[in-house]
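Q: How would the C-alpha cells look for this protein?
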Amino acid sequence: MEKVIAGATINVNEEGYLTDFSQWNKQIGTDLAQEANITMTPRHWEVIDYLQSEFKKEVPLSIRKIGKSGVVDIKEFYQLFPMAPLKTASKIAGIPKPVSCI
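A: Here is the predicted structure in C-alpha cell form.
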C-alpha cells in the first residue's frame, strides 16, 4: 500500500507501518508523529534513535526492554508516547510493529 506523507510516497502495511525502512527520514517521522497527536521534542528523538538502532541490530523490542535500556524508563516512555507507546514509537521510527505488540 502506498501513502503520501511529507511530500514523499512511502510503502506501508495495512496498519500504517513502513514496509521499507530506507524510505524513512526525520520529516516523515515528524508527520507520522503529528498523525498520532505527538509533537516531537529532542527527548522523543532520543527514544526514536534508540529504537532504530535496536531494529538495525535485529534486537526484538518490548516495553520491558525499553524500560531497562537506560535511555528512557517506562513511566517517561508512556508520557512521551501516551497511546500504545511501543506501537506508536515504532511507527514514528519507521520500523515494523514489534512482535510483542498485539
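Residues 42-56 form the longest helix (15 residues).

Strands lie at 2-5, 8-11.

Upvote if useful.
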